[in-house]
């Protein structure tokens, strides 16, 4: 490459970098000046000479748009068009082309109807139409994001989803067309400037996808709402023609200030911990480090970004050290705070060594608390029996063993409490007192057994809020659902939730906790011929478990609002080939989507009347297991060929419009060139017809098949499939399986 070519490319790249950003269309030189993108230099100068003096005098000039622009903005736009053909070409590509033919940009009216334009190109009309549609969709999406805060939680979310989907699809299609680059070649020839040659085409081809996705990255980094950061970052990673790894690198670069802020908070916390102030150190972590970490998780999640995983683990180490220091310094008195810090550390830890260290230290605290509770219980029993002397001797022996270490203060408090104790203070004789303790313990055990047998699995899924285990271990994944403890247990941290294990440690629900066991849901029924006791495969088991748990959460009404549900997926050997049994079930745990801790105010009431709300699910996700399962039903009529998200799904024993009967795979390898719309539709319809033999003529077959843009996005990652659903010819509502 000669130096002159390198200079052209470098200046073109600089122009693209300058254009990239949420304001890329708002500050586009042609949009700002109201000029058509193919205006010649004479036309540009005439408009500059007419508009600039008027603006300098403060006159109200119609520029053909309502953008808030200053005199300097207009001057800069004219300089960009006239001063450097490479910068001008960048702005041409990111503004409307069709209006260039009639001199009316963006519906500006007669403002530029006298503009003289350069020679028209020979592009097919569809190219200009598709390019302008991409510009309009992308521009409108950026305007919507810039003008509104918290889009994900507001009334503009549906519009934003539509605009971003169209922008990504249309730009992806345009940039793949050879005639688009022929147009660029034509404009280089028309501009006829020695600073421009065809070397810039390769630069544009390489850099334009990144320029188009850069605004999403900046918006995601600047978003204040976690839901917006998640949404915008995902849109950036899914943008066509840009490798997700490249986007991840750019997101991490955009997140650099947040990483620095988190490091600064950790440095302050470490300084306090080094000074012996573990409470202050932990407060710094909870008040400043964790909110910043939550921001990073929504933008650059640790599962995708090593830097986030590393700093997340560092926070876990810091909290572990706070908890350990508190335990060493205070003994049992540290339990409340140290337990909380250990739980958070266990949740944050990403390194196996750190995870094991936190687990060991937390278990040590629990063992210490168990020991001290046993000591306290023995002392109470001795006092109740009137044996204050032996109680004092016991405590003094323990104090001697502690040798001034952690827990000594707690023993001193117990000793001080003995000073006011009176022999036989309970009013009962010693022998009867000891028997009473045993009797009470026996009643507690018997009461637990009776409660477990009678009310463990009521139809409302809970047995009410009266059942709230106060800590310990509960059974949540027994081979038979009837052997589980009732729903209602609160799981302290996400690391305690180990899918597939029979038991889980729980904490009192008035303490901070990660999630709550809200239901056990059977996965098979007799309403659908497509949902039997036969094992349906890993994908459908996962989809069934998700459906049943999301439905259970939805039907808790306001109790489930905003929460997410995590679930277990039973293995193949849980399925009884002879028919449904109590082995085919899933355990449902509700928690916040961002995995923040739930408080006492967030506890899910399980004794509320259940609603008839559907689960809102998709029917054409990237992977089959993400969809509503086979054998579930669409509650109300939908055009499934156009709508594929937020579909109301209910069990088929309830009134519904259609039943989902199959997801046949059309192209198992998920690769290859697009075979054409007609070919894919014929293949999809034939696959659905095969899956629904016996219903032809009596039912309407609803087929959702992959269009070209869906194919392009998914072909490299997963098999290409179709969705089949059956409804009655009358489109009426029915109950039960297909007749």
Topology:
Blueprint: H1 3-19, H2 29-33, H3 41-56, H4 71-83, H5 85-93, H6 98-102, H7 125-147, H8 157-176, H9 178-191, H10 199-222, H11 226-237, H12 244-254, H13 256-274, H14 278-299, H15 306-330, H16 335-348, H17 352-384, H18 388-402, H19 408-418, H20 430-455, E1 472-475, E2 490-491, E3 503-506, E4 515-522, H21 538-554, E5 564-567, E6 585-591, E7 615-617, E8 632-634, E9 647-651, E10 658-662, E11 665-667, H22 677-691, E12 699-704, H23 708-714, E13 720-721, E14 723-728
Antiparallel strand pairs: 1-3, 2-4, 4-6, 5-6, 7-9, 8-9, 8-10, 10-14, 11-13, 12-14
Helix pairs in contact: 1-5, 1-10, 3-4, 4-5, 7-8, 10-11, 10-12, 11-14, 13-14, 13-15, 14-15, 15-16, 15-17, 16-17, 17-18, 18-19
Report on the structure:
- The chain is an alpha+beta fold and 739 residues long.
- It has 23 helices and 14 strands.
- The chain has helices at 3-19, 29-33, 41-56, 71-83, 85-93, 98-102, 125-147, 157-176, 178-191, 199-222, 226-237, 244-254, 256-274, 278-299, 306-330, 335-348, 352-384, 388-402, 408-418, 430-455, 538-554, 677-691, 708-714; strands at 472-475, 490-491, 503-506, 515-522, 564-567, 585-591, 615-617, 632-634, 647-651, 658-662, 665-667, 699-704, 720-721, 723-728.
- The strands form 4 sheets. A 6-stranded antiparallel β-sheet has the order 7-9-8-10-14-12, sandwiched between helices. It has a 4-stranded antiparallel β-sheet with strand order 2-4-6-5, covered by helices on one side.
- Helix 16 packs antiparallel against helix 17 (352-384).
- The longest helix has 33 residues, at 352-384.
- The N and C termini lie far apart (72 Å).
- The model is unreliable at 1-9, 100-118 and 423-466 (pLDDT under 50).
């Amino acid at each position: 490459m000669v130096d002159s070519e390198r200079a052209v490319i470098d200046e073109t790249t600089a122009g693209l970098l300058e254009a990239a950003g949420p304001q890329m269309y708002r500050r586009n030189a042609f949009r700002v000046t109201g000029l058509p993108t193919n205006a010649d230099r004479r036309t540009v100068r005439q408009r500059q000479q007419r508009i600039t003096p008027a603006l300098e005098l403060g006159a109200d000039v119609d520029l053909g748009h309502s953008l808030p622009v200053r005199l300097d903005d207009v001057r800069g736009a004219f300089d960009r068009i006239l001063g450097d053909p490479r910068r001008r070409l960048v702005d041409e590509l990111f503004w409307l082309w069709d209006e260039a033919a009639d001199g009316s940009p963006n519906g500006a009216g007669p403002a530029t109807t006298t503009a003289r334009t350069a020679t028209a190109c020979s592009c097919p009309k569809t190219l200009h139409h598709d390019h302008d549609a991409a510009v309009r969709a992308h521009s409108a999406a950026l305007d919507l994001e810039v003008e509104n805060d918290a889009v994900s939680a507001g009334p503009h979310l549906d519009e934003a989803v539509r605009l971003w989907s169209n922008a990504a699809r249309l730009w992806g299609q345009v940039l793949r067309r050879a005639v688009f680059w022929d147009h660029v070649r034509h404009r280089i020839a028309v501009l006829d400037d020695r600073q421009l040659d065809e070397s810039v085409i390769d630069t544009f081809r390489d850099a334009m996808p990144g320029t188009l996705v850069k605004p999403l990255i900046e918006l995601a980094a600047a978003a204040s709402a976690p839901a917006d950061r998640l949404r915008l970052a995902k849109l950036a990673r899914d943008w066509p023609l840009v490798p997700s790894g490249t986007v991840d690198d750019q997101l991490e670069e955009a997140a650099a200030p947040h990483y620095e802020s988190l490091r600064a908070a950790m440095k302050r916390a470490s300084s306090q911990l080094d000074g012996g102030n573990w409470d202050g150190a932990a407060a710094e972590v909870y008040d400043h480090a964790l909110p910043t970490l939550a921001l990073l998780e929504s933008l650059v999640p640790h599962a995708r970004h090593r830097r986030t995983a590393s700093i997340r683990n560092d926070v876990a180490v810091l909290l572990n050290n706070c908890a350990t220091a508190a335990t060493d310094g205070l003994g049992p008195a540290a339990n409340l705070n140290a337990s909380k810090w250990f739980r958070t550390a266990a949740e944050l830890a990403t390194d196996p060594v750190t995870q094991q260290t936190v687990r060991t230290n937390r278990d040590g605290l629990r063992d210490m608390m168990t020991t001290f509770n046993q000591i306290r219980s023995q002392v109470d029993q001795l006092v109740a029996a009137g044996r204050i002397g032996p109680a004092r001797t016991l405590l003094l022996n323990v104090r001697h063993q502690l040798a001034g270490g952690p827990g000594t203060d707690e023993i001193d408090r117990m000793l001080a409490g003995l000073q006011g104790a009176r022999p036989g203070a309970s009013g009962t004789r010693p022998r009867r007192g000891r028997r009473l303790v045993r009797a009470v313990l026996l009643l507690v055990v018997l009461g637990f057994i009776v409660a477990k047998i009678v009310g463990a699995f009521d139809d409302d899924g809970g047995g009410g809020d009266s059942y709230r285990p106060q800590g310990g271990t509960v059974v949540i994944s027994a081979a038979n659902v009837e052997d589980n403890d009732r729903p209602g247990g609160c799981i302290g941290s996400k690391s305690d939730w180990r899918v597939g294990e029979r038991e889980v440690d729980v904490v009192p629900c008035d303490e901070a906790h990660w999630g709550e066991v809200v239901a056990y849901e059977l996965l098979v029924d007799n309403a659908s011929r497509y949902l039997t006791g036969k094992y349906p495969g890993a994908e459908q088991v996962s989809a069934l478990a998700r459906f049943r748990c999301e439905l259970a959460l939805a039907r808790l009404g306001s109790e489930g609002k905003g929460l997410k549900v995590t679930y277990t997926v039973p293995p193949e050997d849980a399925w009884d080939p002879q028919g449904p049994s109590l082995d085919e079930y899933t355990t449902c745990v509700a928690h916040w989507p961002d995995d923040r801790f739930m408080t006492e105010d967030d506890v899910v009431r399980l004794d509320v009347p259940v609603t008839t709300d559907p689960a809102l699910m998709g029917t054409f996700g990237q992977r089959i297991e993400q969809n509503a399962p086979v054998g579930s039903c669409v509650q109300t009529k939908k055009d499934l060929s156009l709508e594929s998200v937020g579909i109301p799904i209910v069990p088929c024993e309830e009134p519904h419009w259609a039943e989902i009967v199959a997801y046949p795979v059309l192209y198992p390898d998920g690769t290859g060139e697009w075979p054409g719309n007609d070919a894919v539709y014929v293949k999809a319809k034939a696959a659905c017809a095969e899956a629904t033999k016996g219903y032809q003529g009596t039912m309407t077959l609803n087929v959702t098949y992959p269009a070209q843009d869906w194919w392009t996005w998914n072909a490299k990652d997963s098999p290409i499939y179709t969705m089949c659903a059956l409804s009655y010819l009358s489109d009426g509502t029915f109950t039960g399986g297909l007749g």
